[in-house]
């Protein structure tokens, strides 16, 4: 290789995705270096799929220094659960699944009614899994641009022995120096893509050509309109039965929609869309005037402080 060719390579500028990727890999390696028993929260959603790819770049060709963990509400979209299992099998990493349904059977989660969203109750099941396996760090895909409470949180977020988060008592992170140390019973939540935006995530998925659950792309679905939200109805569950049954007086319409984010069926709404490719999703994201959670997460719309309260109780 000539000197001029070497010089050209040396001065090739890094893209913003290269910088974000490098930071996230650094954070993942800090977790592996500082924590004795970490775990990666993996749902099969777009953010956790990005972290899965980042972990591959951080630790391959070796095995991950942590297992994968999914807290399953029992009311997740079948397409996402099937994809979760397929992806975990493809990369050959251990997947641990703990269910809110099991917490209900134990009596540690009590629903007000059968129709109540199970989303917030994941906190209980997560804390039970942390205690069961002795995890001292949970790696998650939360991003600061998603919601106001998440914008307050550090990359290494300390949780006390009760799993609680205090937004007024957080560790400084000057000069990208991270403190993941904790005493027995305490926990760290690490967020490697905290500084990413929804646009960054989609551009990274497009660049890396990552496979996704089909519901992220435009498809036809039966829905009803409740207030300002599009609500999928009669959604088949993995365990049988359906979620979100139609209420009296509601009219079912069949629309072309896609999901910007996925979660519990009871609180995750789609948006009208014709974006059936990654390139179209990137363009659609660039032109949207509504945040992904503002448009699609019904549980965040109950109050301005709903997410912060759930995080104080142990939520992701």
Structural class determined from secondary elements = alpha/beta
Q: Major sheet, described briefly?
A: 6 strands, mixed
Mean pLDDT: 86
* Counted beta strands: 12
**Strand composition percent:** 15-25%
Which strand order do you get reading across the main beta sheet?
A: 3-2-1-4-6-5
Which percent range fits the helix content?
Answer: 25-40%
CATH class of the largest domain: Alpha Beta
Keywords:
316 residues; alpha/beta; Rossmann fold; 6-stranded mixed sheet; 4-stranded antiparallel sheet; 16% strand
Q: How are the secondary structure elements laid out?
A:
Layout: H1 3-10, H2 16-34, E1 38-41, H3 46-59, E2 68-72, H4 78-91, E3 95-99, H5 100-106, H6 122-133, E4 137-139, H7 148-151, E5 156-159, E6 187-190, H8 198-208, E7 219-226, E8 229-232, E9 235-236, E10 242-243, E11 253-258, E12 271-272, H9 278-287, H10 292-296, H11 306-312
Helix pairs in contact: 2-3, 3-8, 8-9
What does this structure look like?
The chain is an alpha/beta fold and 316 residues long. Helix content is 35%, strand content 16%. The chain has two domains: 15-199 and 307-312, HUPs (Rossmann fold, 3-Layer(aba) Sandwich), CATH 3.40.50.620; 213-299, no CATH class. The protein has helices spanning 3-10, 16-34, 46-59, 78-91, 100-106, 122-133, 148-151, 198-208, 278-287, 292-296, 306-312; strands spanning 38-41, 68-72, 95-99, 137-139, 156-159, 187-190, 219-226, 229-232, 235-236, 242-243, 253-258, 271-272. The strands form three sheets. A six-stranded mixed beta sheet has the order 3-2-1-4-6-5, sandwiched between helices. Strands 8-7-11-12 form a four-stranded antiparallel beta sheet, with no helix packed on it. A two-stranded antiparallel sheet has the order 9-10. A hairpin with a 2-residue loop joins strand 7 and strand 8. The chain is globular. The relative contact order is 0.16.
């Amino acid at each position: 290789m000539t000197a001029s060719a070497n010089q050209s390579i040396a001065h090739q500028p890094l893209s913003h995705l290269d910088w974000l990727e490098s930071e996230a890999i650094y954070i993942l390696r800090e977790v592996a270096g500082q924590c004795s028993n970490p775990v990666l929260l993996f749902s099969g959603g777009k953010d956790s799929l990005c972290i899965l790819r980042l972990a591959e770049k951080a630790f391959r060709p070796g095995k991950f220094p942590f297992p994968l963990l999914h807290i399953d509400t029992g009311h997740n979209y079948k397409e996402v659960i099937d994809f979760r299992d397929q992806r975990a099998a493809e990369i050959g990493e251990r997947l641990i699944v703990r269910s809110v349904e099991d917490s209900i059977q134990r009596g540690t989660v009590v629903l007000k009614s059968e129709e109540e969203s199970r989303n917030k109750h994941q906190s209980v099941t997560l804390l039970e899994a942390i205690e069961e396996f002795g995890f001292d760090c949970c790696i998650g895909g939360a991003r600061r641009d998603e919601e106001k409470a998440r914008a307050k949180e550090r990359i290494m977020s300390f949780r006390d022995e009760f799993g609680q988060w205090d937004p007024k008592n957080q560790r400084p992170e000057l000069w990208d120096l991270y403190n993941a140390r904790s005493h027995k019973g305490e926990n760290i939540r690490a967020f490697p893509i905290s500084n990413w935006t929804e646009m960054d995530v989609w551009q990274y998925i497009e660049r890396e050509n990552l496979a996704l659950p089909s519901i992220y792309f435009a498809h036809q679905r039966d829905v009803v309109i409740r207030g300002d939200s599009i609500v999928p109805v009669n959604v088949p569950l993995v365990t049988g039965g359906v979620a979100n049954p139609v209420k009296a007086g509601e009219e079912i319409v069949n629309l072309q929609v896609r999901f910007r984010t996925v979660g519990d069926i009871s609180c995750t709404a789609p948006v009208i869309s014709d974006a059936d490719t990654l390139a179209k999703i990137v363009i659609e994201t660039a032109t949207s005037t509504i945040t992904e959670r503002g448009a699609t997460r019904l549980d965040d719309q109950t109050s301005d402080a709903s997410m912060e309260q759930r995080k104080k109780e142990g939520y992701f």
